[in-house]
Design goal:
Chain lengths: 112, 115
């Protein structure tokens, strides 16, 4: 069966420090991968999605970037974190033209 | 452009009573609709989906949802609420962009079930 791993679960980082969050999917190949951010425990905002290795689409301009170095690996990065980057980050995947998406357990990022 | 509206920030219901969490949508073409549930500090769990077919869709944990095309609604329902159903519920609609499948979420409705 397919599973998705996301780590770390929580992270506290100072302003100006770099960021790297990792997400990997097992049990499927060529998934579509997504990074969402959830602010204040409510709505989800799509940040990036990827349909293949090295293919990244950005939904909103921001201080973050994403990369997909391997088929089932999706990385969210920042060179210098801002206070406004704090939030709950969720990785998700679907197979091509499938229906529902499946989510990782999330990373709670606090920038101090 | 597609969108989802969840008009209620919070729904309160007593255990054993029926519950409804409302969702309306706007999308070009046929809608693919979903409900997810989120417990504190956790990822989203898939509950149910509507793709085609019967307007009443049954999902996990006794939840069901009714698709109404004329009202562009997809309300989540459960005949008898449990305290353990208390969580944040999201409605979502899917669009296809090339080979990608993007979900657009509503703002969420917090369900509080009390004894």
């Amino acid at each position: 069966s397919q599973t998705i791993h996301q780590w770390p679960a929580t992270l506290v980082q100072p302003v100006g420090s770099p960021l790297s969050l990792e997400c990997t999917v097992e049990g499927t190949s060529n998934p579509n991968l997504y990074w969402y951010r959830q602010a204040a425990g409510r709505g989800l905002q799509l940040l990036f999605y990827s349909v293949g290795i090295g293919q990244i689409s950005s939904e909103v301009p921001q201080n973050l970037s994403a990369s997909r170095p391997q088929d089932r690996q999706f990385i969210l990065s920042s060179k210098k974190l801002l206070l406004s980057d704090s939030g709950f980050y969720l990785c998700a995947w679907t197979v091509v033209r499938a229906t529902e998406a499946f989510f990782g357990q999330g990373t709670r990022l606090t920038v101090v | 452009a597609q969108s989802v509206a969840q008009p209620e920030d919070q729904v309160n219901v007593a255990e054993g009573n029926p519950l409804t969490v409302k969702c309306t949508y706007s999308v070009s073409g046929n809608p693919y609709l979903f409900w997810y549930v989120q417990y504190p500090n956790r990822g989203l769990q898939f509950l149910l989906k509507y793709i085609t077919g019967d307007n009443l869709v049954k999902g996990s944990y006794g939840f069901e949802a009714e698709f109404n095309k004329s009202q562009t609604s997809f309300h989540l329902k459960k005949p008898s609420a449990l305290v353990s159903d208390s969580a944040l519920y999201f409605c979502a609609v899917r669009s296809l962009t090339g080979t990608a499948s993007k979900l657009t979420f509503g703002t969420g409705t917090r369900l509080q079930v009390t004894l």
